Structures are given as C-alpha cells and as structure tokens.
Amino acid sequence: MIFETHAHYDDEAFDEDREELLSSLPEKGIGTVINVCADVKSLDAVRELIDKYPYVYGAAGIHPDHAGDLNEEIFEKLRQLCRHPKVVAVGEIGLDYYWHRDPESHALQMEWFQRQMELAREEGLPFIIHSREAAADTLEAVKRLRGGEIGGVIHCFSYSRELAEEYLKMGLYLGIGGVVTFKNARRLKEAVAEAPLEQLLLETDSPYLAPEPNRGKRNSSLNLPYVAEEIARLKGVTPEEVIAVTEENARRLFRKIRA
C-alpha cells in the first residue's frame, strides 16, 4: 500500500468533498496518510482528522510562513499535541525566504525552527522540514542541531544532488512529490537518481503541486502512483518496488505507526 507522508487535508480546498475523498483512499491503494500542520488553526483541525480516520496520522508544527503567530502559549499547545498517540512527527517546520526577504523575518523563523527542532528531540519524534530559497541556512541549522540524531525528512526536496548528499549522509530522508514529474525539474531528477531508494519517501503536499498529467489541478494522494512511476523510471526499478520500499522507509522513520 502507498504511504503518503505529507498532505494537508484540513485545507479549505477539501471542504466540499473531504469525507468522501478520505474515506475512499484505502480502497484505492493509499494505506497510510500523515496530515501535516502548517498554521495555528491546523493544530485543532489535524487532531480532528486523526481522531476520525484510523489510517490518518498527524504531524504537529508551525510552518515558517506563520512563525510570527507563535508564542509560548501556542508552543505549549504544540507540545501537548505531540503527545497524542497518533502524532508521529514535528512539522512542518523550517525556513522560507521566498516570501520573506527581510533579516528580521529570517531571525524569527530561525528562532522558532530551532525551538521546534528541540521539541522533536525532547518528545522523541522525527521532524518534517520545509526549506525554500534557504538552502545554506537550513543545512547549517540541521547540522548545528545534530538533526541526524533526531531523524527526519526534508519535505518537497528541490535542491541539488550535492545538497541531497549532505542530508543523506546524516541518515535523513528526502520527501519526493509531484515536482519530480515536471519536465523542468532536472536538479531534482538528478538527486533522486543518485539517492538510495531506502532514503526516499512519497508525498504530495496536497492540495498543492499535483504531478503530470494533472499539474495545476488540486492534488491528492490518489496522484501518488504518478510519482512512484517517475521515481521507478529514474532508478531503473518497478513502481511496485518504489511503493514497497518507500512504505518500509516511512514506517521506519515514523516509528509510532504500527504496521
């Protein structure tokens, strides 16, 4: 069964058919889903989803775009959510300099990135990192905070093969989604071709980043076979092997999930 390691089914894009879609996933080959928090509001929404669907698990964290909403009260709420039996990671956390180019924002993002990485260590959970146009600072922080000891995944990996190697050497995983199917994703294709299959995870970032042939449409876990097929092509294996190995990888990383 396909293990979807990164989706946002609490997003308003799913308001009209969320229950129908989520209920249909197991019969369509999606065995496990991790629904990932992004903003403060999603802390409650993710709890509702993981309590309702047996095969949906959660990740608790605040995306760097919303670092300005964090305070000690919210951080304590985040800590308590990490102790829910079905919350399996701290995420998504990290750095995003695409929309935020001022040094003050970068400093605030880094502060809360570090706090949430420390939370992952304290709670014994792996991390899910978002990094956009912040390659050097993200890598420096992960090394400084000894991220390899904590364990985690670089979500929606989009950097070079050389940077991939730095994370892989730490024993971390790369989250691979629809972007790998894009014709212009040369750097990502090179990184995937070189990376051990045993350190790759399947993800969508639903409702965003739908793969070819559905690029530009609302994404869902039902598109993951396209991602598996492209990874298989790049690595010279079958899609079935990609699905099986990435499921095993995910269960190894997100160890609170029992087979």
Please, could you describe this protein's structure?
The chain is of the alpha/beta class and 259 residues long. It is 43% helix and 17% strand. It has helices spanning 18-24, 40-52, 72-82, 103-123, 135-144, 147-150, 161-169, 186-194, 224-235, 239-253; strands spanning 2-7, 30-36, 56-59, 87-96, 127-132, 152-154, 173-176, 200-202. It has an eight-stranded parallel β-sheet. Helix 3 links the parallel strand 3 (56-59) and strand 4 (87-96). Helix 7 packs parallel to helix 8 and helix 9 (224-235) crosses helix 10 (239-253). The longest helix is centred in the middle third of the chain and has 21 residues, at 103-123. It is globular and about 45 Å long. The N and C termini lie close together (11 Å). The model has no long low-confidence stretch (mean pLDDT 97).
Short description:
Helices cover 43% and strands 17% of the residues.
Give the overall shape, derived from the CA principal axes: globular
Considering DSSP H and I runs of 4 or more, what fraction of the residues is helical?
Answer: 40-55%
Radius of gyration: 17 Å
Helix/strand/pairing class, anyone? Answer: alpha/beta
* Uncertain stretches: none
> Kindly, what is the distance between the CA atoms of the first and last residues, rounded to a whole number of angstroms?
11 Å
Q: Give me the strand/helix succession.
A: EHEHEHEHEHHEHEHEHH
